[in-house]
Amino acid sequence: MTTAIAISGLVKTYGKQNAVDNLTANIAKGRITGFLGPNGAGKSTALRCLVGLAAPTSGSATIFDKRYRDLDNPLSKVGTVLDSRGFHPALTGKQNLRVVAAAAGIPDSRVDEVLEMVELKDAAGKRMKNYSLGMKQRLALAGAILGDPEILILDEPANGLDPAGIAWLRKFLRKLAEGGRTILVSSHQLAEMQNTVDDVIIINKGKLIASGSMKEVIGDGSLEDAFLALTGGEL
User: Fold this and answer.
1) Which CATH superfamily is domain 1-76+182-235 in?
2) Average pLDDT score over residue span 15-42
């Protein structure tokens, strides 16, 4: 197994509270890993540490053995969806992506490609402020894949998607993984995660409580049953 993302003894403290508490986990290259936990478990904080938006109190979170800030041309290595509010509401979907592309030296033709990939081609000329939540999520995903990255890190990417959109997202992520991409996805939609991911990492109160392949974690039961048992019934 080739490790794409390595989290080792990660601690992030706010005041006297450990949001992430000595977390160690490895994410395998070319697989989809579900990063799960109740609200407040520390998932978003861990992801923010991983992509350099927060500094670890101690420990490390690396991508291909490097901190995010030390990656060469990070947009071609890592794509992220941590918040769909990162675009300018007065610009169209296409204009927003062209701004990102220009800053990263990516040709405009790639903007059209990713808009088609996320099925927003017909809404490319629409101002983002008029996008639905699901459309904003698709635009955020388009931004994440703009640099054709090796790794995707997604925090609740299905938020705002209808059932058809969720099914589309599952197939989309699977196709990317089959092409060799590594995907780390955080979600509360456990039934969907069971149908989507290869491996599972579950944390609670900042601590790792389970990790392994889907089969290793759930046995003959469901992901929801395993999750509830491991987290004391918290969702």
Assistant:
1) P-loop containing nucleotide triphosphate hydrolases (3.40.50.300)
2) 95
